[in-house]
Structure formats: C-alpha cells, structure tokens
C-alpha cells in the first residue's frame, strides 16, 4: 500500500446521487460559482432493493453520481448550494451526504515517464 502525502489536509467529500441527466448541468454551475478542489461525475445503473420489493418487479434505474472535494471551511456553503440547486428536498430528486476526506492530493503526470509525452 502506498503512503499518501496530503496536499489538502482539511477537506471533505460531498456525494450527490441524482436523477440521470441532472449531474452535468449541476457540475457546470458548481464549477462557475463555488470554490472547489475537484469534482467528478459518474453515471450509474442499478436496482434499488426497496423498489423491487414494493413493485414485485426489479427495474433498473439510471442515476448520476457527483463527487465533490471541498476544503473543510467551504463544505457547509457548497453542501447548501448543491442541496438547493439539485432540489434534494423534493421527493425522488436524489440523496446527498458528506464525509471527511482521509487523504487527497494532486497528480503530476510529468513525473510518470509513460505519460509524460
């Protein structure tokens, strides 16, 4: 296991699980309006156990997953912003949570010979 040398010692991860198609516009707004260290978006597909039990038929649901790395001092502000913009307070609009980032840092591709070109 490699050792992590953190550049951002006091940072938090905010994860938003949203309806498919809602992640990219939110990412663009977030990038323009807020101070963030990093943001990634993923597209996911799966079956929720509670919906399969209620309806009797398992139906796959597609969602966007937005993961934002934020300095600890900014986390409440960014979390509130995402909560409002994603309309998480409305039913079926998604879910959010935040957690302390154990370790984060920057990649320097110029130090990797195979990727330097």
Write the layout of secondary structure elements.
Blueprint: E1 11-19, H1 23-33, E2 38-46, H2 49-55, E3 61-71, H3 75-86, E4 94-100
Antiparallel strand pairs: 1-3, 1-4, 2-3
What would you say this structure looks like, in words?
The protein is α+β, with helices and mostly antiparallel strands and 117 residues long. The chain has a single domain, classed as 2-Layer Sandwich (Alpha-Beta Plaits). It is 26% helix and 31% strand. The protein contains three helices and four strands. It has helices spanning 23-33, 49-55, 75-86; strands spanning 11-19, 38-46, 61-71, 94-100. A four-stranded antiparallel β-sheet has the order 2-3-1-4, covered by helices on one side. The longest helix has 12 residues, at 75-86. It is globular and about 50 Å long. The two termini are 27 Å apart. Residues 1-6 have low confidence and may be disordered.
Report the biggest beta sheet as strand number plus sense, adding barrel if it closes.
4 strands, antiparallel
Mean pLDDT score: 79
- Show unreliable segments: 1-6
Helix content: 25-40%
Number of strands: 4
Globally, the shape reads globular
Order of SSEs:
EHEHEHE
Share of residues in strands? 25-35%
Structural class category: alpha+beta
Instruction: Specify the number of helices.
Output: 3
**Tell me, what is the CATH class?**
Alpha Beta
CA radius of gyration is 17 Å
How would you briefly describe this protein structure?
The chain is α+β, with helices and mostly antiparallel strands and about 120 residues long. The protein is built from three helices and four strands; from the N terminus they run βαβαβαβ.
């Amino acid at each position: 296991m490699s050792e992590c040398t953190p550049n951002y010692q006091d940072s938090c991860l905010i994860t938003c699980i949203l309806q498919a198609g809602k992640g990219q516009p939110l990412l663009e707004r977030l990038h323009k309006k807020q101070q963030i260290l990093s943001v990634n978006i993923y597209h996911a597909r799966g079956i929720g156990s509670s919906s399969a039990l209620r309806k009797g038929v398992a139906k796959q649901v597609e969602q966007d997953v937005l993961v934002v790395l934020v300095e600890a001092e900014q986390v409440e502000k960014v979390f509130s912003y995402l909560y409002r913009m994603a309309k998480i307070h409305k039913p079926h609009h998604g879910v959010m949570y935040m957690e302390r980032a154990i370790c984060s840092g920057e990649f320097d591709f110029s130090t990797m010979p195979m990727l330097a070109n």
